[in-house]
Amino acid sequence: MLTFDNQFRRELPGDTETSNTTRQVNGAVWSPVMPTPVAAPRLIAYSQEMANELGLSTAMMQSTDVVNALGGNGVFPGSEPYATVYGGHQFGHWAGQLGDGRAIYLGEVVNAAGTRHELQLKGAGPTPYSRRADGRAVLRSSIREFLCSEAMFHLGIPTTRALSLVATGDKVVRDMFYDGNPEREPGAIVCRVAPSFTRFGHFEIHAARNDTGLLKQLVEFTIARDFPELDLPADPIDRVGAWFGVIAERTAVMVAHWMRVGFVHGVMNTDNMSILGLTIDYGPYGWIDNFDPGWTPNTTDAERKRYCYGRQPEIARWNLERLGSALLTLTADESTEANRLVDLLQAGMAKFDEIFDLATRQKLAGKFGFAHWREEDTPLVNDAFRLLVEAEMDMTIFFRRLAGVGIDPEANRVLLADAFYRQDLREIHQGALDLWLGRYLARTKEDDFAQPDRAALMNRFNPQYVMRNYLAQQAIDLATAGDNSMVIELLDVMRRPYEMQVGRERFAEKRPDWARQKAGCSMLSCSS
Ligand code: AMP
Ligand code: MG
User: Fold this and answer.
1) Could you give phi then psi for residue 45, rounded to 5 degrees?
2) Is the pTM of this model over 0.85?
């Protein structure tokens, strides 16, 4: 049914201990671990595209064997489950060994076309890396990861994917508000899929332990398996330096996409940074409603706002520096090699800046419908964002509707009215918006670009539908009451996020008032 080729397990050193008791794992990059069976696995939803990619038919997806395997009751033939060792900087501080505390790799599936995918069950029970936690995941966070990772894929943003969402039939105890009132919540397991789940933290941990041999081995393995298309120099220093530059580029592209659509990851710790520049680990993420660079969905970060929307590029850069520092331990202190590698790592950081700026300019041109970005567009664009902040306008609706503005000021007012959350702010800022639109329309005339072409361009950069926090929460509330229909409908809506879908207008509406301060809609805890 699935063809496994478990290269990671085969080629890299594994843990000799086989129990899943919590421990420090040294001298190995993975530990064998089996999923812990659950009471009654039931398939809530699955991604048709991902199933196709893996060669799983509808009948297979619904078969007892497959649902059991996706729920951790039994394993696919050829699967050899394991969890991996990684560390990470959390909220700016080195946190030591973390590892896959509740993600269990099923192995590497090679599809009919020869493409390799790693499969992981998230929430399938304890591993040696579970520390004091249970290795489980609740339904609400699993729905959020399942829906958002597929939504990101369809938005054209590099991301890990989700194959399936399975209810376990077991309860999981969580203190959602960290207020001493734990509750029993329904449990679930997402099967997630990516070419590689390797994180910055996978390298940091061996560097922190001065295990240069293991670090080197993991670097060579990763380059060979996860970057087969690269033609890197043979010299070991040049090789690592050039590879780092590629990681920096991919990270820059990913973050530029996040900024384009108003996605806030929420927990950009280095253990949540993918080596392939994929959006990974959907926890207390959120989508910008009213545009506010200081907004973070993560309640744990509400005070310091380290991971707010506007700081994501800077944090990505900081995380890359941590990875660079880890890679630098491959060379002896103050050696010629070390000096050479420092130069190359710095060139990699410069690559991040260059690619991030390039991608941002290209995305801004697309969002505003300019044929090309021109440096002199900066004030016009900055003024738009300032207006969005001051008038508390919805980012997604503003940009989507901007494609339809024309010479009639009254029609423009009607068109953009929905972007305002507050009538009082609308009254205050309408005049400024009218003036801005005047400048904007003058600018668009400077392009040799017919209006329909401009609108078509903008509609490729500005989604009609994003995975708004309150929509996910509505789907969660219904699913918790036993009705999965909205999970399935949202998944379907998000398959074509740039198209107007007749009858699905409600999925494009701004956050309603009731959701403004509701948990899950405007703010999220890390409890999951
Ligand atoms: P996260 O904040 O979800 O990125 O997780 C940070 C670390 O905590 C990772 O090592 C996770 O594997 C671990 N972790 C989070 N939740 C659990 C859980 N319920 N059981 C075991 N480990 C967990
Ligand atoms: Mg994580």
Assistant:
1) -160, 160
2) yes
